[in-house]
Amino acid sequence: MEKRTEGAWLINHTKKLNDIKDTYEFEDIELAGKCGVFLSNLAASDEQSDLNADIVNAIAKVSNVKKTEIDTIKAKLEEARLIETSKNGSISVLGITTSTVLTHTADIFESGSPSNYQKAAIGLSDNISDLPKGEKILTEYISDTYKLSSTETGDLFMQAEDIGFIDYEKLDDSSKFYFNGNLFRREGVEKTNAVLSSLEPEDTRKINELDQILTFQGCVTLEKGKSILGDTLISKLQAIGMYDFNEVSNLMETRTFITKPSAFSKYGNPFEEDALDLAKAFVSSLYYGMTFSSQDRGKITMLKALLSKLVNGYEVGPATAIGEDYKLLELKRVIQIRREPNTTRYHMKLLKKDIGALAMQVLEIGDTSEQTLITSNIYTGSVTNYIGPEHKRYSNRKKQSQQSKKSVAELLRTFRS
């Protein structure tokens, strides 16, 4: 497995472990994953960052790093020569892209001499990310590859199912059929066709209609997706990861946007390119402002020009709305906000240029590349929280009825051959 892929799985698994108590059997995974997330939120893409103690502590909170963990994580990152710390709590970090964050995350994991049990938890998920696998062949592969006893293998599968590292459905013969949410991030066209061939003609027509819209404009609201697919079909497709569901929220409301997993593939595997969900959060935040901002605020126009300017290292603004609409992205250090002296207007600069490039790829597809530029009217509906597609997908699967689960299994069956 390539280091970038391993790093992406470590971060993926760490997000799942954040919701679980007593994760001591996966401590090396969780430590490496938290190091990766913290490092990403510290660093800009191509310039050194010098951050004071208050900012570092705020970044730790955004990264789900507890006070009891922060010293260990700092020590790990300093040992790897990725940051420099000072006695006053400030940190200096060199420019690091998302791709290198994943590589460093994998290196930190390996440096901790993880057990075969933990290595198997990573290998298990990766093995079913291209095609679903049956229980017998998968348990034999994991046991043989990672030298686990039958008891250890059984325990690993039980925990992996419970935590959400892997998903399964039972088919007609009652054997388990394993898959995960990464299914449509590789060879999406072939797998989409396989799903379409298993559906009724009317459902196929609906999926083709939504797919054309997503190919044309990159992102749609959940309401638009439901109006095309209907509640039942959209739930099935979310459960197998055919679409990404990205939730953004503020104090007033919560909105969900749909994107295609394969859209985030500017340089290669979209699972690796946006493992931290930052480009998806960027796209969703932009679409939130474009779709749900009040009319008197004005719309974003010339989006391609705006993103191109940001990716090329220039500031945009000044505008009052810049200080309101992108708080989440500011906390994740995707962007940097600068207030113009003696005014309520702000400038925006892109810190993670690779994330901006991915977002631009999605948003400039088709004829919608010239859509909006930020005006100076204030809008208080800022995006302050984001929930990524894998968390949304897994939560949706837990809520499914048995009939719906059977329908999902039928869709997955198409990948067996």
Spatial strand order of the main sheet: 7-9-8-13
Strand content: 5-15%
User: What fraction, in percent, of the residue positions are helical?
Assistant: 40-55%
**Span between N and C termini?**
23 Å
Give the overall form.
Answer: flat
Summed over residues and divided by their number, the pLDDT gives a mean of: 77
Q: Mind summarizing the main beta sheet?
A: 4 strands, antiparallel
Q: Give me the count of strands.
A: 13
Please, could you describe this protein's structure?
Helix 1 (3-17) crosses helix 2, helix 1 crosses helix 6 (116-127) and helix 12 crosses helix 20 (402-413). Strands 7-9-8-13 form a four-stranded antiparallel sheet. It contains 20 helices and 13 strands. Strand 2 and strand 3 form a beta hairpin. Mean pLDDT is 77; it is low at 295-299 and 366-383. The longest helix is centred in the middle third of the chain and has 17 residues, at 201-217. The two termini are 23 Å apart. The chain has 417 residues and is α+β, with helices and mostly antiparallel strands.
